[in-house]
């Protein structure tokens, strides 16, 4: 499963990550940046370290799990 991770900096200078499942691909960097700007300007999310104040990064993460048969 793929996730889009949006990383922000909060007022305490800590990194806060929000993950969205199954992003539309290919991911459009301009749209991601605009969405992140909107999240900050609307104060849509908060964190234990205060409001989000800056964008840090965005990335698509894919996790592959393969079961190992034992016993």
What would you say this structure looks like, in words?
The chain is α+β, with helices and mostly antiparallel strands and 71 residues long. The chain has one domain. The protein has one helix spanning 29-41, and strands at 2-10, 15-21, 46-47, 50-62. Strands 2-1-4-3 form a four-stranded antiparallel β-sheet, with helices on one face. InterPro entries: DUF2922 (IPR021321). This is DUF2922 domain-containing protein.
Give the strand tally.
Answer: 4
What is the overall pLDDT average?
Answer: 95
Q: Pairing-aware structural class of the strands and helices?
A: alpha+beta
**Count of DSSP helices?**
1
Distance between the termini: 28 Å
Q: Report the major sheet.
A: 4 strands, antiparallel
Percent helix among the residues? Answer: 10-25%
Whole-number total of structural domains: 1
Which parts are unreliable, with pLDDT below 50 for 5 consecutive residues or more?
none
- The sequence of SSEs as H and E is EEHEE
Q: Tell me the quaternary state.
A: single chain
Query: How are the strands of the largest sheet arranged?
Result: 2-1-4-3
Output the radius of gyration.
15 Å
- How big a fraction of the residues is strand? 35-45%
Characterize the overall form. flat
